[in-house]
Amino acid sequence: MKLKTFLHLTLILIGFTAKAGETYGVILSGGYNLKNNHYRYYNSTQEMYSAFRSAGIKRDNITTLYADGADKGTDTIKPPNLWTLGFENQEINTPTSLEGDGKQDIKYPASPSGISATFDDLAKKVKPGDNLVFFITDHGSKYEGVYLWNGKSYSVKDLQRQLSKLPSTVTVQIATNICYGGQLLQLTSPNVCVVSNSTDDETTSSNTYDDPFASSFADAIKNPKKNTKGKPSLMDAFEEGRDGDKWENKHHLTSIDYFIEKQNTSFRTTDAGACCGNNCQQSPITSLQNEIADISNYLSGVNDPRKVYYEKYLKQKLKDTADSLNSFRIKYSQWVRSGYQADIDKLKTQWASLSATEKQKLRPKYTELAEKLRNEDGRQRKAIDDLEDDQKRALAEMKFLKNASEGQLQKYYSIRRCLEHAI
Terminal CA-to-CA distance of the chain, rounded, Å? Predict the structure, then answer.
């Protein structure tokens, strides 16, 4: 590769840790309407606001759009609190002060005009080199984008038009916490990166009071395990959010996944179900390990600046993931042998010994016990599935980088730099 190209890619890599400008934050939570605006959306809004402040974002630099904004009407459903003997849902007007000092922090309603006003304000403030962190926690639509207050929808194209008001040199980091959130990955560009808690055709699930992805994401910003010059990156927060989101059958994606899949090199190419019966030549994991070894061997003999990134990030990630997978598989095998299966068998034996009258009376209890065991088994299997997905993603990146053109590399590193930019 030419010296000019080598220097260009080296400068891009160095740019990961370049000094950041001013940081701005936007939080959007539409809620759809009173009956669907669950209290966890307000909790997530508060948690993210607190996280932004912990990250050093100035209060005046944070714009929050929530439900009906500063309207004095009820806008949120609060679930019953059995500790205080409250047994019915409450319709409440959520406080607009997120710091509890009476100053209004919810600036606009979650409406098209509120979003437009927010980005008009930002367009007057932001300068080249500044950073915008945009968190969306809300209901999502498979075909209409994000739902706002009063059932209005806001499409990906609508969001794109608002982002276009900002200078192209502003880094925009978007985190979605909605059903079908993967559709917002379409916003990916050299200066815009997105992390999502779901694909574009996948719903999400949450608790009554909080959302595990949003809570873990916010906590990673407030109490970073990893950091970029003292602050966590968007990717750091995303990985913590994903690890804290224990719901089964969910996929968490980033702009890198989207970009690589658009290059026809999807991490989903490894087929875990291709091995069957006597026709099985090697397990999917063995096949994956062989692919990793092939690419690693290729790297050892190539004088290419991409090696820096392989060795610094991808190869280490593959090693860490493999170590974690081995540990999880051992623990899961022990759980199945000594815990799950034994407890299920015990429940079955106890159930079989009951009379018909006792079964009718105790059915809810036994159903709950069995469900708890199944849920725990599902959580443990999900941890393994997530690690296997990590392997596939890292391998897809390796494959892409091995064959990428210079133009593709420049786009890739721009997206990667955005994801690794400190919040």
Answer: 34
